[in-house]
Amino acid sequence: MTPNKLGYLLLLPLFAWLGVVIAFPVFYGVYLSFFDVPYGIIKKFVFLENYVSIFSDLKFRIAFINSLIWTAGNIALQTAIGLGAALLLNKSFKGRDVGRVGILIPFIIPAFVTALVWRWMMEPDLGVFNAVLKQLHLIQKPIVPLVDYAMVTVIIENTWRFSPFAIIFILSALQTVPSDVVDAAKVDGAGHLQIFRHVTLPIISPFLSFMGLLAFFWNFNLFDLIWLTTGGGPGSMTETLPVLIYRRSFREFRMGEGAAISVFSFIFMAIVTTILYFLPKIRFRGGKK
Amino acid sequence: MKSYTDIFLLAILLLFMLFPVYWIFVSSLKTTDEIYGGNPSLIPANPTIMHYVKLFNPGEYFGGGTGPVILNSIKNSIIVAAGTMLISLILSTITGYALSRLITSGKELLARTLLIVYMFPSTILIVPIFQVMSLFKLIDNHFALIMVYVTFSSPFISWLFKTFFDAVPKELEESAMIDGADRLRTFIHVFLPVVGPGLLTGAVFSFITAWGEYTFTTILINTEAKKTVGPALDRLIGGIYIDWGGLLAGTVLIILPVIVFFIPLAKRFLQGFMMGAIKG
């Protein structure tokens, strides 16, 4: 057997596994989106009716816009914190190793615990957040972050949980920057900012773009943290597409519509991914030839 | 002088990252009066373990007797997380090795196909996965959870392992083969030692993924005795009334084992992760 064939054979177990748990459910979901499925019972074939009804649904449009804000806000914040913290933790100074371990802690805290503790901290009367603001005389009467600034609060909460991943990812990327190149740039009189822009950034940018892709997938599809923190509320303020899918399917039991929103959401992600990640590579290769 | 700026920045970063966790611990040790009194203090005025005692007192009106349920759910979560870890490691090792060393045609496409898994919202998968599991008679079975969690952790770990294997010099592999070792022995004696530290990273990643998952476990597990840590706390949230003391104490019971398990491994977890990036 050639190595190539052996390789395909070794891929079989995982791909078969993913086939059962992912591929089949996905096709089944697409199938469901063409049916009227009240309470999980396939009633009748309605072809595109579910799609027509979601597109004319204001809630759907709000959720889509919320999803865009949510994803953009999260990726921006996570990249900023990830980059800043990784550059800091890449230096050698006292306390760095403790810091490297410390920043990992949110990563091991389950989503439902995160939701709980943020709700606890943001409690208007009992929470520490308002107490601190009052102590600093920044506010007169308590604010309710999860009502007044719900989206921002949940974005910060999710960033808290996802940042460790962003930090260690970028920190790993920074290990690939050869120190002799940095030293040579220093000898040539380059400042910190110049070194970062012309030496560090070009080397780590493939990692950043890969991380960006994962962050896009994970943030866009994030469900549990939002659901457990705000349930999508108040009103529809934090209702992103995954939350809406869940509400339609398991609270209102309109599973056909839920499936249609899922299909839309997947197609949207596929288009964005293609534009951002696949097209530039093709063009790049074309240019090389 | 410069190093002080770094330490200061690190302190701010750590404050942001660690304060919520500190706050769970501290709040769980406050008396009910202090919890509901407003003006929370950074250190409990009269530290107490009353909320922990209450969880283990079956006679208590609300939330009483939840302690044993939580401990049992921790046991269940350990079983599920360990199973997920084991299967993920095996699948990801062979997948990473095949993608890195064996497959020559369509390698990049296959590696990317793996990541498409993360493109599907988990909410679309709930209904069909429930039906697949019913078909296999796996509802209320921990293996159903393991099947789902392996799906979510393996693609990423496979990608990570692929980069580890990429870092093994070709000469090392070739010289072992010339010495007469077959592919399996080369794999065991040349590749496994190199990815050893990385295995730990993959193990921790999959364990954590499985440990605190909430959505699928609420759907696939019904029996109280089989519940994992996520739903175990639900009974402490009764409608509009939240018993914060009991809830926070229960939360501590749940996160303490992972923190104790993780801290000693954290440094090597990070090293493994950074090793994976060397050859990107």
List the helices and strands and how they pair.
The complex is a heterodimer of chains A (289) and B (280).
Chain A: H1 3-32, E1 35-36, E2 44-45, H2 49-55, H3 58-90, H4 96-102, H5 105-108, H6 111-122, H7 128-135, H8 145-148, H9 150-174, H10 179-187, H11 192-220, H12 224-229, H13 241-251, H14 255-288
Chain B: H1 2-28, H2 32-35, H3 50-55, H4 66-102, H5 107-115, H6 122-135, H7 142-166, H8 170-178, H9 183-211, H10 215-220, H11 229-232, E1 237-238, E2 241-242, H12 244-277
Antiparallel strand pairs in B: 1-2
Helix pairs in contact in B: 1-12, 4-7, 4-9, 7-9, 7-12, 8-9, 9-12
Task: Write up this protein.
The complex is a heterodimer of chains A (289) and B (280). Chain A has 289 residues and is an all-alpha fold. Chain A has a single domain, classed as Orthogonal Bundle (MetI-like fold), CATH 1.10.3720. Chain A has 14 helices and two strands. Chain A has helices spanning 3-32, 49-55, 58-90, 96-102, 105-108, 111-122, 128-135, 145-148, 150-174, 179-187, 192-220, 224-229, 241-251, 255-288, and strands spanning 35-36, 44-45. In chain A, strand 1 (35-36) and strand 2 (44-45) form a beta hairpin. In chain A, helix 3 (58-90) packs antiparallel against helix 11 (192-220) and helix 9 packs across helix 11. Chain A starts with a helix and ends with a helix. The model of chain A is unreliable at 283-289 (pLDDT under 50). Chain B has 280 residues and is mainly alpha-helical. Chain B has a domain at 78-231 and 262-277: MetI-like fold (Orthogonal Bundle), CATH 1.10.3720. Chain B has twelve helices and two strands. Chain B has helices spanning 2-28, 32-35, 50-55, 66-102, 107-115, 122-135, 142-166, 170-178, 183-211, 215-220, 229-232, 244-277, and strands at residues 237-238, 241-242. In chain B, strands 1-2 form a two-stranded antiparallel ribbon. In chain B, a hairpin with a 2-residue loop joins strand 1 and strand 2 (241-242). In chain B, helix 9 (183-211) packs antiparallel against helix 12 (244-277). Chain B is globular. Chain B starts with a helix and ends with a helix.
